[in-house]
């Protein structure tokens, strides 16, 4: 797709939207006896962009639909600017929505599709056309106002859907995996456009996605959901560097998860004592997970002896080319580690090479090990996402 990028914000939309404060308080939703939302609590400040991230079946789309009014909740409160809207119909909540499917009317032009919400609000024809044209310019489609859906690419159709959600000037914008049907290059381009427009308008935004790269790249804060609850919420940097639960550590980025026991001097794992700074404040004998990002693991050829401080010895069993870095999987006696090393260096560490993987003392994070540590692949998919 060759997309047209807007260079300026049309005049009637240039003043930042004040945005609304949004709160979900202990929201509960059941489907046929299965709990999709289990006391969800979420606060969004005016003009804030929040990404709701999680695997299929975690409840993220159900939470968005509950906020929009498309789902009736079984408990809790939903507040927009302090007003409980649980019993307020969809068309009275001042919310714009963009869905995964474009849902454009095929018999209407792009301009007419954008005008539709204004027509339902009894806005005059001249005003409808003006506002639709301005909003299409905002999303970079001002030259496509007369085209029908079948004459537009997927990315252009989703831009029309975004314009249709924005033309009524809502105070809250909800996006339900809006880019998942697009190819990778268009997804990156369009998510950046969505973020630019959101910042220009100052609109409070909730963006539902299962794509962690999308969530981390465009949001002010990320909320990770699992099993109908929010596991953790924080800035993208916080979510990546300081996961609060084993599930978040598994879901955000790639993580080494090494089980061990706190001992004097560190954590015992695979016959080696790992000197982890955080272990000093843990009780001796506690079972823990040592969480280490692959990019923080240093790899060198083994010198023939045992491992040194914070060093695990094993063999390179696979190499995965990732562009500037190559991911090595290292296996040994009780050792199972992945490490991202510069691709040029990986050339000197082919499969079968005996290597020493050195773990950082300060970059590692410890979490208490519990028997019910969730695994993403095993997560059930309830009736509501």
Report on this structure.
The structure is a single chain. By secondary structure, the protein is α+β, with helices and mostly antiparallel strands. The chain has helices spanning 60-68, 110-120, 125-138, 154-166, 184-201, 212-218, 236-241, 246-251, 343-346; strands at residues 22-31, 34-44, 49-53, 75-80, 83-84, 95-98, 172-176, 204-209, 221-226, 229-234, 256-263, 266-269, 272-274, 287-292, 298-301, 311-321, 325-332, 335-342, 354-358, 365-368. Strands 6-7-8-3-9-10 form a 6-stranded mixed beta sheet, with helices on both faces. The longest helix is centred in the middle third of the chain and has 18 residues, at 184-201. The two termini are 30 Å apart. The relative contact order is 0.14. Mean pLDDT is 88; it is low at 1-11 and 371-385.
In round numbers, the mean pLDDT is: 88
| Beta-strand content bin | 25-35%
* Sheet with most strands: strand arrangement: 6-7-8-3-9-10
Assembly category: single chain
Sheet with the most strands? 6 strands, mixed
Order of helices and strands: EEEHEEEHHHEHEHEEHHEEEEEEEEHEE
What is the terminal-to-terminal distance?
30 Å
Gyration radius (Cα, Å) is 25 Å
Characterize the overall form: elongated
Spans of at least 5 consecutive residues whose pLDDT stays below 50 are 1-11, 371-385
Helix amount: 10-25%
Strand segment tally:
20
H/I helix tally: 9
User: What structural category arises from helix and sheet content?
Assistant: alpha+beta
């Amino acid at each position: 797709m060759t997309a047209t990028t807007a260079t300026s914000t049309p005049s009637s939309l240039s003043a930042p939207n004040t945005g609304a404060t949004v709160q979900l308080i202990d929201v509960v939703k059941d489907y046929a006896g299965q709990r999709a939302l289990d006391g969800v609590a979420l606060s969004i400040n005016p003009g804030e962009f929040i990404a709701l991230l999680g695997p299929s079946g975690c409840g993220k789309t159900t939470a968005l639909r509950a906020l929009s009014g498309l789902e009736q909740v079984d408990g809790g409160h939903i507040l927009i600017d302090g007003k409980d809207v649980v019993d307020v119909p969809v068309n009275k909540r001042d919310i714009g929505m963009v869905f995964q499917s474009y849902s454009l009317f095929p018999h209407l032009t792009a301009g007419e599709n954008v005008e539709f919400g204004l027509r339902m609000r009894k806005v005059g024809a001249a005003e409808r056309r003006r506002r639709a044209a301005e909003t299409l310019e905002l999303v970079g489609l001002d030259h496509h106002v007369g085209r029908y859906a079948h004459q537009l690419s997927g990315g252009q159709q989703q831009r029309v859907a975004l314009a249709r959600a924005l033309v009524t000037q809502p105070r809250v914008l909800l996006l339900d995996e809006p880019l998942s049907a697009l190819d990778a290059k268009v997804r990156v381009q369009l998510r950046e456009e969505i973020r630019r427009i959101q910042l220009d308008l100052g609109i409070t935004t909730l963006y539902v996605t299962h794509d962690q790269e999308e969530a981390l790249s465009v949001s002010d804060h990320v909320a990770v959901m699992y099993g109908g609850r929010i596991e953790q919420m924080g800035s993208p940097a916080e979510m990546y560097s300081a996961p609060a639960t084993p599930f978040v550590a598994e879901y955000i980025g790639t993580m080494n998860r090494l089980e061990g026991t706190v001992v004097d001097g560190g954590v015992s794992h695979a016959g080696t004592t790992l000197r982890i700074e955080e272990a000093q404040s843990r009780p001796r004998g506690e079972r823990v997970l040592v969480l280490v990002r692959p990019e923080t693991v240093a790899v060198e050829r083994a010198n023939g002896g045992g491992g040194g401080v914070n060093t695990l010895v094993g063999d390179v069993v696979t190499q995965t080319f990732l562009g500037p870095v190559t991911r090595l999987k290292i296996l040994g006696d009780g050792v199972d580690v992945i490490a991202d090393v510069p691709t040029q260096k990986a050339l000197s560490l082919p499969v079968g090479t005996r290597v020493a993987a050195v773990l950082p003392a300060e970059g590692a994070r410890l979490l208490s090990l519990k028997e019910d540590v969730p695994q993403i692949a095993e997560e059930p998919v309830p009736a509501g996402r």
